Amino acid sequence: MELEFVIACIGVLPGVSGGGETRVERPYFDDVSPRNVSTVVGQSAVLRCRAKHIGNRTVSWMRKRDLHILTSHIFTYTGDARFSVLHPEPSDDWDLKIDYVQPRDAGVYECQINTEPKINMAVFLHVEAAAATIWGSQDVYVKKGSTISLTCSVNVHSSPPSSASVLWYHGNAVVDFDSPRGGISLETEKTEGGTTSKLLVTKAALTDSGNYTCVPNNAHPASVSVHVLNGEHPAAMQTSNRASSYLTSQLSCAAFTYLLSSMACR
Q: Where is the Ig-like domain (predicted)?
């Protein structure tokens, strides 16, 4: 009776059949990681690959565009030291890390397991240029005496974030926060997507009009044109234009009506 109970228990153990044969699970990719990865020039990128039940098999990374084997197991097979494998024991993770990403690194990478036949998982790396963006329109209109508020987002991080990481220019001159004019301040902070710099110019004067440029120390700059208006604002100007157009159309209609009536009289 006891022997029969032991045999029955063995028969239901995972990976063991009633005939005493061990069931070996085939390797596969635990496809929970993003297949599209985006990064910025100069930053690091991690392409994730989780391989399950590999046994004594090997996980490798290959660059698709030139079929170059970059890594195999924990070893790197390229002279480019920017590439490495992240494999914390005893995890199933075999992640490819690329430091100081360059535009040429964009493209498809394959995580491979040397089964027969070989299985692979493709990951696409998208590389963006490091650039600044100023929120809102490229033309900013403010009333004289109000506050000019310009916010610049940079899609890379500066470590640590500081006012020195982003400079602001008014025309060709760096904005001077210690000038006798006063009322100029800057707020710089690190965000999830990069760095944000906010320029505030209080009590705007007509001389504050002009081109303002956000210049990060590690990205392309961005510019806006600020117009300080004395009284009239763009909405009023657009209203005047609409009124003028309306008046023109009314006069045209009157002339056309007069012409028709003249022809009828003849």
A: 27-114, 117-225
C-alpha 222/C-alpha 197 separation (Å) is 12
Q: What is the CB neighbour count within 10 angstroms for residue 85?
A: 20
Alpha-carbon distance of 38 to 41, in angstroms, equals 10
Contact yes or no for 248/240 (Cβ under 8 A): no
Gap between the Cα atoms of 118 and 82, Å rounded: 26
Nearest to 109 by CA among 59, 167, 54, 75: 59
pTM over 0.70: no
Please give, one letter per residue, the 3-state secondary structure of 174-210: ECCCCCCCCCEEEEEEEECCEEEEEEEECCCCHHHCE
Structure tokens at 100: 């100081």
- List per-residue pLDDT tens for the chain, 266 residues long: 443 433 333 333 334 444 444 566 889 999 778 899 999 998 899 999 999 999 999 999 999 999 999 999 999 999 999 999 999 988 999 999 999 999 999 999 999 999 999 999 999 999 999 899 999 999 999 999 999 999 999 988 765 544 457 899 999 999 988 888 899 999 988 877 788 999 999 999 999 999 999 999 888 999 999 999 987 655 433 333 333 344 344 434 444 444 444 444 44
In whole angstroms, give the CA distance from residue 72 to residue 60.
Answer: 4
